[in-house]
TrEMBL record, chain A:
GO terms for cellular component: endoplasmic reticulum membrane. GO terms for biological process: protein retention in ER lumen; protein transport; vesicle-mediated transport. One of its GO terms (molecular function) is ER retention sequence binding. The gene is LOC107224153. This is ER lumen protein-retaining receptor.
Amino acid sequence: MNIFRLLGDLSHLLAIIVLLLKIWKTRSCAGISGKSQILFAIVYTSRYLDLVTTYISAYNTFMKLIFVVAAYATVYLMYIKFKATYDHNHDTFRMEFLVIPSLILALLINHELTVLEVLWTFSIYLESVAILPQLFLVSKTGEAESITSHYLFALGSYRGLYLLNWVYRYYAEDHYDLIAIVAGLVQTVLYCDFFYLYITKVLKGKKLQLPA
Amino acid sequence: TIFDKLHDEL
């Protein structure tokens, strides 16, 4: 564990809590993409299957459980409890366009052709693009509430911090995983446009509104 | 194995 990874995990945890609290407190999931949330539930389910096969640490197990449970809780709140507030007219990104290519790529490029390993790789590829329906939703409506922006900033920062963690681990531990690194780079690059708007607008107290 | 080390992250 190094500081970048810890900050990355905490940033991820913060993002999840912010999103759940926002939905719970406002009794609404307006502006949130249910498609992205379903994709995240798929991501964490397929990645953390090793919960039953490999023990790494209490921290690792605890965080994995939190991420899986929170992903399903979010999907439940959006599609069942606060279904009436779900913005499905704008949330039109096709999930299969991300799931199918990620699965094919995982079958082609992986560390080992076993079920668990391919599913782990699939989850890494899918996570890198899972935010696209959310970014698509924001671009369609042309704006995002501040709290949604904070959620996206924390979620985007998480993989960015992991990139620093991988640089650190490369030098300090001689450890690197190209699949995770390349996917992490893609994932972070997808947020760049959003990061720019967040820093130039939201942090100055303005609403995130896209130029017409 | 190598995989234990590879997948020690979240």
